[in-house]
Design goal:
six-stranded antiparallel sheet; Beta-lactamase; Lipocalin; alpha+beta
Length: about 475
């Protein structure tokens, strides 16, 4: 046999692995295209009623299968959202604050079981509050966001020290470690701890120790309102059935530590990948971060749960003009990020269905009919006051259903107005919080409403006149 014939005889053995690889790549590309097509159809109703504008990223096993921008980053200038658009990520910022604390612990500069007074010496009662209590919201420190003065404070520059001054002398809501109560104040305090120990500002520490090492060049602490942020989205709020209004002005330093960071879906995916290795946090620190310490769900900056019968490590955020979600299905290597510049609950409502699409599981697409005219008598039967219990979507909330020029609106006792878009004559989509409102009857009379959010139903009973 000639050398030439021998070479050609071996060719199939060399080509076979390449053909198998090519076939796998084709299948992967086809699957990604199918996911993208389904997501496009799924989000159309949200886009049509302007309940969502933002960016979405889906990745599996380290490979991005979808990244896309939807709607506008700025409605006044008609600038579209893209995967590179920066959004304020609100409470998703907490995952970076918690990581910074764990990094300082790795360096031997603190321990999470240390008392607060070790790092903020003049904090009243701080000897009974540990850093762990702050990380998992069991400190008892009241939530700064709930103070009546907060709206005024949020319009002016703040520092972690100035924020602490606003709540440190207020009584604790409960003895430290005895209860869970989500409080943004905890992470204001943790930002102060980071600054006091490191000698760097909160933003500088994150940049130098997390963002720069990971190449997260589009992520930063918004610490100076005079500084221009390139490619950042403007924030909006739902107005009416399909309109927008500008979100109120906010100096984001009021959220230092708990919600002051801007980022992109692409950068948050870089963060997701880093959490599978020792690039920023050791295996021991990652285990600490992802351990559910309270109610089998509260970790250090993250919530831990099971969704779609899979372990899900997630965080969400919502601040005026913005909302976001990051869900990490760590056993599958799947990451889903939804960031929005609309102060609507759509991102939280959508992300579970987007995960179902990614996993090839059933999901319920949203169908709305914003032009549906509800019979005046039917609409009138829905009006009035409804009362939720301790297990309601917002515990013990009172709700008032109002007729606003032939449109149904829901006013919440804690403040805020939800515009309801018809799905049918008895079911409505809440443009503000992203839930579904269904009216129920007993003996022919409207007796209650059911508020559906994140796959759960919450009942509020109608008050008798």
């Amino acid at each position: 046999m000639s050398k030439k014939k021998a070479t050609w005889g071996l060719a199939p053995f060399f080509l076979a692995p390449l053909l198998i690889f090519a076939a796998r790549e084709t299948r992967s590309s086809d699957a990604a295209a199918e996911v993208a097509a389904k997501v496009k159809v799924y989000i159309k109703p949200y886009l049509d009623m302007k309940a969502f504008s933002g960016s979405i990223l889906i990745a599996k096993k380290g490979k991005v299968i979808l990244k896309e921008g939807y709607g506008l980053a700025n409605y006044e200038l008609s600038v579209p959202n893209t995967p590179q658009t920066k959004f304020h990520i609100a409470s998703i910022s907490k995952v970076f604050t918690a990581a910074a604390i764990l990094m300082l612990e790795e360096k031997g500069l603190l321990a999470v079981d240390d008392p607060l007074t070790k790092y903020v010496p003049d904090y009243p009662g701080g000897e009974k509050i540990t850093l762990h209590h702050l990380l998992v919201h069991t400190s008892g420190i009241p939530n700064i966001n709930n103070f009546p003065e907060y709206g005024n404070w949020s319009r002016f520059p703040q520092t972690p020290a100035s924020l602490i001054e606003k709540f440190k002398d207020r009584p604790l809501n409960f003895p430290p470690g005895t209860r869970y109560d989500y409080s943004n104040s905890n992470y204001n305090v943790l930002a102060a701890v980071i600054e006091n120990i490191s000698g760097r500002s909160y933003g500088e520490f994150l940049k130098e120790n997390i963002f720069d090492p990971l190449g997260m060049q589009d992520t930063a602490h918004d610490g100076n309102p005079a500084v221009l942020i390139e490619n950042v989205a403007s924030g909006y709020a739902p107005a009416g059935v399909d309109g927008f209004e500008k979100a109120p002005y906010l100096d984001w330093t009021v959220k230092t530590g708990n919600g002051s960071i801007t980022s992109t879906v692409e950068d948050l995916f870089k963060w997701d990948r880093a959490l599978y290795a020792d690039e920023i946090l050791s295996s021991a620190s990652r285990t600490k971060a992802f351990t559910p310490y309270v109610d089998d769900s509260v970790g250090y900056g993250w919530f831990i749960s099971r969704r779609h019968n899979r372990r899900c490590i997630r965080m969400n955020g919502r601040s005026p003009g913005f909302q976001g979600e990051i869900h990490r299905y760590v056993d599958d290597g799947t990451c889903i990020v939804v960031l929005s510049n609309n102060y609507s609950g759509a991102a939280s409502f959508m992300i579970d269905d987007i995960a179902a699409i990614a996993f090839g599981e059933p999901y319920e697409p949203l169908t709305v009919n914003k032009d549906l005219e509800i019979d005046a008598k039917v609409l009138a039967s829905y009006l009035g006051a409804f009362q939720g219990g301790a297990d309601f979507f917002v515990p013990n909330a009172s709700l008032t259903l109002e007729n606003r020029e032939g449109r149904l609106a829901l006013r919440w006792s804690m403040g805020g107005l939800s515009w309801l878009v018809p799905v049918s004559s008895s079911r409505f989509y809440d443009r503000t919080f992203g839930g579904l409102v269904t009216f129920g009857k007993d003996e022919g009379e409207v007796s209650h409403l059911t508020y559906r959010s994140s796959g759960r139903d919450y009942r509020a009973n109608k008050k008798k006149m």
